[in-house]
Design brief:
about 20% strand; alpha/beta; 6-stranded parallel beta sheet; 7-stranded mixed beta sheet; 14 helices
């Protein structure tokens, strides 16, 4: 079958790879119908996430049709159209029973490396390095889905593939970021990043009762989506000092909840950003943390900072003194999507969470290298490229 593979840093290819097969009785094989690019893929492509190997198949946000099931699969049938959570979780371990699916004890068959780096191993993730299991990703004609009864969710009739695909990752990630922020009616919420996840976090915050939601980015087309499709307030960080603008908007108090939806390759202007770029390039630290620092500094006293952007290693100059002395709550996690996806699919089908506009560049799988170049460089207003094998 054809698939998008990682050949090395900033080197992708579309090539023939072996077809997936059933390895466990809880597996299913899906024919992929839609598979979306994601900003966190760029961390793999750019070489900032360790343990990638030549030939690894990329992609973790996808929708497909069931073509084969293992003997232990009870809730799926051949022909079902399903969206699959990007996180691989068993549904039975202690963490899964607590609803902490991205912390599953059984979803990652390669625990030794993350245990060495992070102290414990998280769940598996499709197409996201050998730190999270070494699973083949979804930018392919077919994919094996472990624990298929737990990770596959039927797509409501009438919800198009290229809208429903975001229930795999962007929508539950954004929702969980707002959920983790403990948003209450009347809150002012600031979101860093107007990509797919940032827009979904903003929309989720609005549905949870936030009085005002501000989304910070620099790309005009994304900021226009924030205003026109999501209904939040755009803020261009190239035009203002973000901290001063947020403090002024809130009569000096600062936002009640701050959501960081950018991660380890955050962009900004000025000396702090240049410092991060140099240290990351020299591998003196692995992350660029300018947006996280801004969120901690801007958040009101006693407020909450929710971190959605992917961080994988080590970051310096974190303003821990500001966090401690302001009494902030900081919550971080990969998404516990299994907890949210059925409810979110219903909301998407009802039109409460718009997603179709995120698919700015649908294209054949064979054009995926060009698609990733457009996505990385934000060419032609690309928010998400979605591949159709």
């Amino acid at each position: 079958m054809r698939a998008v593979t990682w050949r090395g840093v900033n080197d992708l290819a579309v090539e023939d790879v072996p077809d997936p097969r059933i390895l466990d009785d809880q597996d299913a094989i899906l024919r992929v119908r839609s598979s979306a690019t994601c900003g966190s893929d760029l961390h793999l492509i750019d070489g900032y996430v360790p343990s990638m190997r030549e030939g690894d198949v990329l992609g973790h946000e996808f929708l497909g049709e069931v073509v084969e099931t293992g003997s232990g699969v009870r809730e799926l049938s051949v022909g079902d159209r399903v969206v699959v959570c990007s996180v691989i979780a068993c549904g039975r371990c202690w963490h899964c029973r607590q609803g902490e699916f991205s912390l599953c004890d059984n979803g990652n068959p390669n625990p030794a490396l993350p245990e060495t780096v992070w102290g414990h191993a998280p769940a598996g993730i499709f197409g996201y390095s050998h730190m999270t299991g070494g699973f083949a990703g979804s930018h392919a004609e077919y994919i094996r889905v472990p624990f298929a009864d737990r990770g596959c969710f039927p797509v409501p009739e009438g919800l198009a593939d290229d809208a429903a695909v975001y229930a795999s990752d962007a929508v539950p990630t954004g929702w969980m970021g707002a959920d983790n922020a403990d948003i209450a009616a009347g809150d002012v919420v600031a979101v860093w990043g107007a990509g797919g996840v940032g827009q979904m976090a903003a929309r989720s915050a609005m549905l949870m009762g936030a009085d005002r939601v501000v989304v910070i980015d620099r790309f005009p087309e994304r900021l226009a989506m924030v205003a026109d499709r999501i209904g939040a307030e755009p803020l261009d960080y190239t035009d203002v000092d973000v901290h001063e603008a947020l403090v002024e908007m809130t009569a000096g108090r600062g936002p009640d909840r701050c959501i960081e939806a950018v991660g380890m390759e955050a962009h900004d202007t000025g000396v702090e950003y240049a410092y991060d770029r140099v240290k990351q390039a020299l591998r003196l630290h692995s992350e660029r943390g300018v947006t996280l620092r801004q969120a901690i500094r801007a958040c009101r006293k006693g407020g909450t900072v929710s971190v959605l952007g992917v961080f994988g290693g080590f970051l310096d100059k974190v303003p821990i003194g500001a966090a401690m002395n302001k009494g902030l709550t900081i919550r971080l996690a990969q998404q516990h999507g299994h907890r949210y996806i059925p409810m979110l699919l219903d909301r998407m089908a009802a039109g409460a969470i718009p997603t179709a506009h995120l698919t700015t560049h649908p294209m054949p799988l064979d054009d995926a290298v060009r698609g990733y170049e457009m996505f990385k460089e934000k060419d032609d207003g690309c928010v998400r490229a979605v591949f159709h094998p």
